[in-house]
Amino acid sequence: MTCLPARHLVLVVGGVVLLGTGLVLAQRPPRADAPDIGPPVAAVTTPAAGTGRIRRPVRPVPAAPVQVTLPGVGGPVPLVPVGVLASGALELPERPTVLGWYAAGATPGDAAGIAVVAGHVDSAAYGAGPLERLLALSLGDVVQVGDATGGSHAYAVTSRRSYPKTAGLPRALFRTGGPPQLALVTCGGAFDTRTGNYADNVVVLAAPVPGRAVSRSSTAR
Amino acid sequence: MSRLSRLVLLPAAVLGAVVLTSVPALAAPSNQDVTWMQAAHQTNLAEIAAGNAAQQAAASAEVKQLAAMFIQMHSQLDAALTQAARQLGVQLPSTPSAAQQQQLAALQQKSGQAFDTAWIPAQIAGHETALAGTMAELQNGSDASVLALARTSLPVIQQHLNALRGLAEQSGLPTSVPAGSGGQAAGSGLPTAGWGIAGLGALAVLAGVAGMIRRRTSAA
Prior knowledge:
The structure holds 2 protein chains of 2 kinds. Chain A is mostly beta strands. Chain A has one domain (32-208): Beta Barrel (Sortase, Chain: A), CATH 2.40.260.10. Helix content of chain A is 10%, strand content 31%. Chain A contains 1 helix and 11 strands; from the N terminus they run H-E-E-E-E-E-E-E-E-E-E-E. In chain A, strand 8 (142-147) and strand 9 (152-164) form a beta hairpin. In chain A, 45% of the residues are buried. Chain B is mostly helical. In chain B, helix 1 (2-21) runs parallel beside helix 3 (61-88), helix 1 runs antiparallel to helix 6 and helix 2 (31-57) packs antiparallel against helix 3. Chain B is elongated, with a radius of gyration of 31 Å. In chain B, 43% of the residues are buried.
């Protein structure tokens, strides 16, 4: 044989190093990290909207939302009203391609409160969904919410924060008073392949874009 | 008690609207009037159907009670609306909208606690849309009899919405949002690369060891 012993030794030593490095890398949990931008969800000291203001006899109210358009996502993503399960978890549509609107909270287009829209970032059964885009949105990106009567409500991204699930979400996220905002909620952070859970909730907040809300409820349905 | 007094007052208000609508219309109702009448009729049909579904499948007595009230009140509103439409010559659709039918079908697949959890937000959404449409009619409608119907409907819809929000409050605020189970968004790049590198290393070790053994046996 023409092989030198040194060559075999190099193979063995190099192989052991590669094997070790590979195993270490393979054991690292996969992560869906989204860097924090802008301020976190803030509680509001004033109890509710409209107090102290003159109320017009008939104030236009937005219809229920039916779709969301996110930058970088092909078409509008459908939205359904959702509630809270006995466990306290927000019940979300199974498919990441359908989002849930927390109907007991504020409505997109409302003059006050945070309208909360949430959805699966991905699913073991159906794969990744459009909310993957939340992890890469930038400040000022515009999100459009369409309602059941053809109205459209535009919001510009003001912040993104990750909240460890162990600590829970801030209660202020579900406030119905205070300045109007849209919250888009999904999962992120480290993914535990054994339990099939992400470590964090990712919350993107957006504020209404002045002059971009279109109410079509008087002409369309 | 206000729920009870409204129950008593509603038939009177509906009767008033019917009396108004029995006056022959001087002009044809506007597009806005027709649009609202058709949407309100479809909403009534959808609310009655959802109410009936709740009688069959709901778990809580409160949901069943609210559903019974919806059936009664939306039936009354719809009787007046249908009569006005006949007098004004407005064609009304015979079924709820496609979206309403889809929502009903989804509800009808559930029962018990799961039904209640889905029924309340679905009804909030339906009533919010009805409220928005009715306010738009009050602002932009023109026919007096249709406006009278809208005025009668508004407090009923608002009352239903308040009752629904009260029920939703009992579930409390969400304490968690489980929103991912696949791991695709986390990407499998690092672990996959890791296993690839480890595999390559294992092959190298095997080749090295095999070579050494072969060398030793051939030397011996």
